[in-house]
Write a structure and sequence with these properties.
Helices cover 32% and strands 25% of the residues. The chain has 287 residues and is an alpha/beta fold. It has 2 domains: 250 residues, Spore Coat Polysaccharide Biosynthesis Protein SpsA, Chain A, CATH 3.90.550; 32 residues, no CATH class. A hairpin with a 2-residue loop joins strand 2 and strand 3. The protein binds 1-O-phosphono-alpha-D-glucopyranose. 1-O-phosphono-alpha-D-glucopyranose binds next to strand 11 and helix 8.
Length: 287
């Protein structure tokens, strides 16, 4: 079985849900406490042993490239002033550890992934949707890679949500379960509540076999008129093993304002240097 060495991060989205904050700043650069969302995802990938980060970007996203590059002026000035360089930990991806490709038109998540086909090549790979913040230790992808090493094939992370909210997500038709793993019998993108096969949704982490790129080549537009990754994955069910993995940890949907605020509060309360003051303020405010 080939190891998972590469990860694709689709980051070309316009982030209209967070305007005006995201007019000039990519939504992936919004911070949770003091670290941008994209870096949480990259850290999670590294923890899972992934070596190459492939960012599918678009116009106006160059802050992401700068974030993972060397910042000479900053480093020199910080050095001269004796500042703590640890603050920049994890922000530098060396040559070969990151690749950028452009998705020139917003044709959907499936199309964004397909834009990375030549770089992914002929090996299994991971996908991270950085909006979905998976918080826990070990991280979500590390848990998935450990499970993948036993069962192979394709794997998606899933979680249960209230049934009335499923229409915003990819939804799983579940088969038999064994511990954290459930067989995937079907997948449907953004179904109407009454048509949804379950309340188990695709939550933004994937391990896929390279054949999905061949399927995406001819994938037609689906929900919302976009080329959907979910539709391409659905076609691979039955051809290769396909499992859903339930993350042992916490998920914050940082694509929504409430989810983003929850993530900031929860992570601030975990930081020893911030927790006391933040907790006292929150209690005060609620009273
Ligand atoms: C995408 C996927 C969907 C998944 C969701 C998770 O949807 O297409 O299957 O459940 O991310 O956040 P989007 O949020 O891009 O509409």
């Amino acid at each position: 079985m080939k190891p998972i060495r590469k990860a694709v991060f689709p980051v070309a989205g316009l982030g209209t849900r967070f305007l005006p904050a995201t007019k000039a700043v990519p939504k992936e650069m919004l911070p949770v406490v003091d670290k941008p969302l994209i870096q949480y995802a990259v850290d999670e990938a590294r923890e899972a042993g992934i070596e190459q980060m492939i960012f599918v970007t678009g116009r106006g996203k160059s802050a992401i490239e700068d974030h993972f590059d060397i910042a000479y002026e900053l480093q020199t000035t910080m050095g001269e002033r004796g500042k703590d360089m640890d603050l920049l930990d994890g922000t530098r991806l060396g040559p070969g550890a990151c690749v950028y490709v452009r998705q020139q038109e917003p044709l959907g998540l499936g199309h964004a992934i397909w834009c990375a086909r030549d770089i992914v090549g002929d090996e299994p790979f991971a996908i991270f949707l950085p909006d979905e913040m998976m918080h826990g230790s070990p991280g979500c992808m590390k848990q998935m890679v450990d499970a993948y090493e036993k069962v192979g094939g394709n794997m998606i992370s899933v979680l249960e949500i209230p049934r009335e909210a499923v229409s915003s997500y990819g939804v799983v038709d579940p088969g038999t379960s064994d511990g954290n793993l459930t067989e995937v019998k079907g997948l449907v993108e953004k179904p109407a509540v009454e048509d949804a096969p379950s309340n188990l949704i695709v939550s933004g982490r994937y391990i896929l076999q390279p054949e999905v790129m061949r399927v995406l080549e001819t994938q037609e537009a689906g929900a919302g008129g976009e080329i959907q990754l979910t539709d391409a994955m659905a076609k691979m069910i039955g051809q290769q093993p396909f499992h859903a993995h339930i993350f042992d940890g916490e998920r914050f949907d940082c694509g929504s304002k409430v989810g983003y605020l929850k993530a900031n509060l929860a992570l601030a309360l975990e930081r020893p240097e911030l927790a006391k003051e933040v907790r006292a303020f929150a209690v005060d405010l609620l009273n």
